[in-house]
Design brief:
nine-stranded mixed beta sheet, alpha/beta, two-stranded antiparallel ribbon, Carbamate kinase, 236 residues, globular, single chain
Length: 236
Amino acid sequence: MKPYKRILLKLSGEYLGGKAGQGYDATTVDSLCLQIQEIHQQGFELAIVIGGGNFFRGAQSQPFAMDRVTGDMMGMMATLMNGLYLQEAFRAKGMKARTMTGLQAPQAAEPFNKPAALRALRAGEIVLFGGGTGNPYFSTDTAAALRALEVEADLLIKGTKVDGVYDRDPVKHKEAKKYDQLTYAEVFAQDIKVMDQAAMGLLRENNLPLGVVNLARKQDLLDFLQGKAVGTRIVG
């Protein structure tokens, strides 16, 4: 028996941009599609929340003063673009996929609706959630936690370019220690940066497990879902 059935995968927009972190890198996107296809073929139900940083990194990153609400709306539109892009990439591989949005953009994608999302997941569709929560001041981390709870996911996975959670930056510190498993209490007590505090609070309060997995290693995501010793697990 698989330890999990319904998964929500959270991706950064920068991940789709490959090494440059901008736009779309064809090799990276193709590798992601193949990983998703393999997971889907194993019988997992999959939803995805993706950031928009490959196009827009927020009002604070601009060289001039920008209203925070305007910046957040632009960021949410970027996440919707990424959702639609992945939808088409998955369909090109023969997978069924649909995009739902937290923003009002009816000509681009259907609004988020829990019963419709659950029906799609049960029918074997990959469901992409774009447009964040539809509200400013909430990150895509928080949107991922919220959507995971709304669709009754068994697990939220944060896809990264490192192989788990460390006590310090492993790129800068060779002696950095990797955690195989943590509790939410340990994450908060040690102020370990995994996702933002609002997202982590939602996950902890609702006892939803979180996994951190390196998507650059093509087998790690499936191995993690099958209970093998890769990545980092964070539990209640």
